[in-house]
Write a structure and sequence with these properties.
disordered N terminus, D-Maltodextrin-Binding Protein, domain 2, single chain
Length: 420
Amino acid sequence: MKKLIALALTACMLLSMCAFAAAEEGTVITIVAWDANTTGYLTAQKEAYEASHPGVTIEYIDVSSQDYDTKVAAMLAGKDTSDIYMVKDIPALLNWYEAGYTEDLTPYMQAANYDVAGFVGMETNYAQDGQQIALPFRSDFEILFYNKDLFDAKGVEYPTNDMSWEQYKEKALAVMDDSDPSNPIYGTHYHTWLSTAVNYTVADGVNTLVDGEYSDLAYFYQMIQDLEDAGACMSYSEISAAGLHYSGAFGNGNIAMMPMGYWYVATLITNIANGTYNVKNWGLAAMPTKEGVAAGSTFGNLTGVCMNKLSDDKDAAWDYIAWLCGEEGAKVTAGAGNRPAWVSEGVAEVMSSIEGFPTDEGSKAALLPTFVAIEIPGTALSSRISSILGEEHSAIMTREISIEEGIENMNERVQELLAE
């Protein structure tokens, strides 16, 4: 694995040398980040950029993760001149923008003819009032994990990258096996989060979870309850009572499919290698979609970077942002075992070359989403809306109330909040 990563990084360095002009000797780019000393991809990014840009030094200013947004707000208000700030969440970024702390990246992008195609729409989540106030460099989007051995045992074809939700449901019912009550085989698994149950509604690029209208969630709630009733997945109440973590649940080897964020890949590879998990042969597929939604559409969260308006060297800051968020920086991020925001065949090649990743072409192709919607858009009310949806989600999934009642409550409560 180390050899593959080293080769990927070397390729990135060579290509980057050709793509960007050398900076002046002694240039220091300061980047404010969280947990910089313990985050592997930050080290990899620094080393790769410095190696391909002689005379440039990347200097991280480390801020603890739990205090990041609060401390950054104080730094910016105090006229800090660090060049780049990493973006942990969108509401904080919007606050920085409204206070006048962020540099508009649009002129830099236009001057460089910067291609945004690889972001598959994700960059729009960092746009405000016609300004591109940040760009993404990481995105852990939702993807479908599956256990090949369980599909093989039932003679059922593996999930594909263009499945509908109806086909997904059919496969879950076909693979399940409850003939041995002491060791049932489940067709699928849902963690207790709202996101793993119904957030797929935002993959159409039209619906959001902050608009106050949630009738579209009924489709997914009904599908889950049907699968629970058929014994094709564990019930929400059972999972909650047992405190069952999704990681160990799939790792146990008796779950055929599981929708989950891409970050689980690293955990899966590590625990299979050390013998902790029972699952051995696994694969990835794109999330299923509803009719009218393009195959490969999904949702996820973003990590990005913005330029400080008080930066002393904005050209150097832009050069780094362009590299980090584009294909070359993405390959470095991927080589460190993380999912970059940039989507391309080259990035997928680096990701799929990591030791332990599935070797089939379908799993590699699943690394090429066609559209990634943001899970919950950043607004001043996002956190309060999330709390409301989470409360009603729990009541629906424990069947304390009907799906219809829960959605009606969501609509009423969020609309009241929006009207305040």
